[in-house]
């Protein structure tokens, strides 16, 4: 998916790439790309253990692409313990009442840093998944699009990617909302018209 997006959207060479939420690095299995890994959780042994809302020590204007796959479920269950499910989905981040049961508060400080560390004409590729928390739908992809524009990006495309099955947890006994089996891949550029025009122009020539 990412390789196809580089070919389709990038107007400068994508490398070096910063993966700002590396986790197990599933995006890069089999890839030979020059990827700098960052994660707040040291257990994944990223090159940079750090908070992508601060990116301490990361130089400005260095990367052709920043990849972002933020947590999209809050800690599950009353005990707030950290199970395999939580770790796989990055569900270890505060998502309670003080954040309106939502994880979108993570985006603005990250977006500011992503803009800083990207080269001019650089590309932000973000995998965003909506969620249900505290019995309410949280439209993360809408928040992300608005916040990216507010941070000075141009969101030039949104791709809906279908999973093989819905996310499941044995904590979820009854469904009150449709099971989601999709996520959104967003591409956003640091330069407005160029990126928007290129995406339009390119889509006439090939399909993703
Ligand atoms: C959904 S997982 C990413 C999965 C990853 N794309 C993969 O392919 O394996 C989200 C990751 O973001 C990390 N994370 C959460 N908040 C972060 C922050 N503020 N800064 C850096 N990493 C963060 C979590 O530790 C978790 O590993």
Which architecture name does CATH use? 3-Layer(aba) Sandwich
Give the full name of the CATH homologous superfamily: Vaccinia Virus protein VP39
Helix share, percent = 10-25%
CATH top-level class: Alpha Beta
The CATH topology comes to Rossmann fold
Describe the sheet with the most strands.
Answer: 7 strands, mixed
How would you classify the helix and strand content by structural class? alpha/beta
Strand and helix order? HEEEEHHEEEHEEH
Our count of domains comes out at 1
Oligomer: single chain
Task: Describe the strand arrangement of the main beta sheet, using strand numbers.
Answer: 3-2-1-4-5-9-8
Strand content: 15-25%
Distance between the termini: 9 Å
Gross morphology = globular
Question: Which hetero compounds are present in the coordinates?
Answer: S-adenosylmethionine
Radius of gyration: 17 Å
Query: How many helical stretches?
Result: 5
Task: Describe the model.
Residues 77-82, 192-196 and 202-208 have low confidence and may be disordered. The protein is 24% helix and 24% strand. The protein is α/β, with parallel strands linked by helices and 208 residues long. The protein is globular. The strands form 2 sheets. It has a 7-stranded mixed sheet with strand order 3-2-1-4-5-9-8, with helices on both faces. It has a single domain (2-205), classed as 3-Layer(aba) Sandwich (Rossmann fold). It has helices at residues 2-9, 84-88, 107-117, 140-150, 192-205, and strands spanning 17-19, 35-39, 48-49, 63-68, 118-128, 131-133, 136-138, 154-162, 182-189. The longest helix is centred in the C-terminal third of the chain and has 14 residues, at 192-205. The chain has 5 helices and 9 strands. The termini are close together. Bound molecules: S-adenosylmethionine.
């Amino acid at each position: 998916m990412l390789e196809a997006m580089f070919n389709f959207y990038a107007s400068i060479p994508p490398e070096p790439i910063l993966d700002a939420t590396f986790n197990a690095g599933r995006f890069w299995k089999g890839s030979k790309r020059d990827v700098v890994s960052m994660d707040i959780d040291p257990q994944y042994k990223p090159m940079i253990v750090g908070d992508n809302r601060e990116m301490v020590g990361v130089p400005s204007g260095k990367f052709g692409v920043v990849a972002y796959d933020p947590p999209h479920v809050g800690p599950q269950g009353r005990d707030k313990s950290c199970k395999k499910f939580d770790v796989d989905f990055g569900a270890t981040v505060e998502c309670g009442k003080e954040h309106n049961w939502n994880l979108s508060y993570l985006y603005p400080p990250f977006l500011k840093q992503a803009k800083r560390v990207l080269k001019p004409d650089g590309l932000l590729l973000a995998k965003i998944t909506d969620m249900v928390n505290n019995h309410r739908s949280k439209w993360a992809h809408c928040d992300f699009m608005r916040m990216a524009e507010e941070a000075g990006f141009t969101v030039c495309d949104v791709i809906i990617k279908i999973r093989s099955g819905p996310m499941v947890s044995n904590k979820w006994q009854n469904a009150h909302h449709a099971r989601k089996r999709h996520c959104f891949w967003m591409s956003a550029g640091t330069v407005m018209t160029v990126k928007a025009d290129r995406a339009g122009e390119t889509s006439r020539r090939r399909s993703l």
